[in-house]
Design brief:
alpha+beta; 11 helices; 3 domains; 16 strands; about 350 residues; four-stranded antiparallel sheet; globular; about 25% strand; 60s Ribosomal Protein L30, Chain: A; Translation, Eukaryotic Peptide Chain Release Factor Subunit 1, Chain A; five-stranded mixed sheet; Nucleotidyltransferase, domain 5
């Protein structure tokens, strides 16, 4: 499964003497045939054939024709034959077919996918057990959960009934505690962005109290689900909650960034300032409008990208040359530095601010 570590590895790749061919292919066959998907790919490759290495083009075409099983809904491929780069990623969500050739991989669609489909964990609990899930890139995967001791309900009255009830409550607390431990391990191992709790009745608030305080803060919401709910229902409920939460979080992030930039307090907006702080390594979170593209100027000495033509690079004195994919270069540089990229929906407030901005480390 695609993750931030793999994205950073690609962001660190440079082809000094040749080119990297980056290809995204829509292989979703629900609305098209294989022949149509191949035709769209050939057209995309033809548009950049003069820029790309012929060996890379052939390698990608052969992979689609002879090796790919056409099960995933999309595919991302990166090839640089002269530098022994060959990476393929099967994607569970559809993407637009496009091809790019340049000195670095074209990563903007990958970064957008990871931000649109962040990784979340789900813990579906009752008094006896927990079912654990991971949700990312539109897919859901059930993990091995904790199964505790059966809690039997004693219906007789009298003194013995109270003893049985205490025993049942003790077993339930023990089960919930062990379920909380299993959930904590999953969150630590998966590096999930947030946690969703599911279940019925009074179990959920009790379970939440048993989670570590830091993990309680990462709970984005709860869903009412029966313990035996099918996987499709768990995904549907979780997706609704995730979508609403992320839209709210991203809108708040944009407002906070623009406000801070206006005050000169730890944020910038617009391409010129964002390019500058990105080259300094000061970006903590890059915020870029979905679909935003812009040309720019790349310094052949230190790699600084400017939004406007300049005669001399302010960092090394080199001569910047025009490039068409300046926004991709910005995204790639920020990923390479270990910072976060947030791709957000277009909005009037972000458009007025220049379509892009950054929250700074210092």
């Amino acid at each position: 499964m695609l993750d931030q570590k793999q994205l950073r590895e690609l962001a660190g790749f440079r082809s000094e003497s040749g080119t990297v061919l980056s290809v995204y292919v829509n292989t979703d066959l629900t609305g098209q045939s294989k022949e149509r998907a191949r035709l769209v790919l050939r057209e995309a490759l033809e548009r950049i054939r003069n820029q790309a290495n012929a060996e890379d083009v052939s390698r990608i075409e052969n992979y689609l024709d002879r090796e790919y099983d056409w099960q995933p809904r999309a595919l991302a491929l990166f090839s640089a034959a002269d530098h022994s780069l060959w990476r393929t990623f099967a994607l569970p969500v559809a993407v637009q077919t496009e091809a790019h050739a340049g000195a670095v991989p074209y990563l903007k669609p990958m970064a957008q996918l990871l931000e649109d489909y962040s990784r979340y964990a789900i813990a579906l609990v009752d008094r006896e057990k927990v079912r654990l899930f991971l949700v990312q890139l539109g897919g859901i995967e059930e993990k091995e959960g904790w199964v505790g001791q059966e809690v039997k309900h004693h219906k007789q009255g009298g003194f013995s009934a109270k003893q049985y009830q205490r025993r049942e409550d003790q077993l339930a607390r023990q089960n919930l505690r062990q379920s909380a431990e299993a959930t904590t391990r999953l969150m630590e191992q998966s590096h999930a962005t947030g946690l969703i709790l599911g279940g019925l009745g009074e179990t959920l608030p009790r379970f939440r109290e048993m989670l570590p305080k830091a993990l309680q803060k990462r709970v984005i919401g709860t869903v009412a689900l029966d313990m035996e709910a099918p996987l499709t229902q768990v995904r549907e409920k979780a997706t609704e909650l995730i979508s609403a939460g992320e839209q709210e979080q991203k809108a708040r992030l944009v407002d906070e960034m623009i406000t801070a930039a206006a005050k000169g307090a730890g944020a910038v907006t617009g391409l010129p300032d964002t390019f500058y702080v990105a080259h300094q390594g000061r970006v903590r979170t890059l915020v870029v409008e979905r679909g935003f593209e812009a040309p720019g100027y790349l310094c052949d000495g230190c790699g600084y990208v400017s939004a406007e033509p300049i005669g001399k690079c302010p960092f090394c004195g080199g001569k910047p040359e025009p490039i068409a994919d300046a926004v991709n270069r910005l995204v790639q540089k920020v990923i390479d530095s270990g910072a976060k990229v947030e791709v957000v929906a277009p909005s009037a407030v972000l458009t007025r601010a220049g379509h892009v901005g950054a929250i700074l480390r210092y």
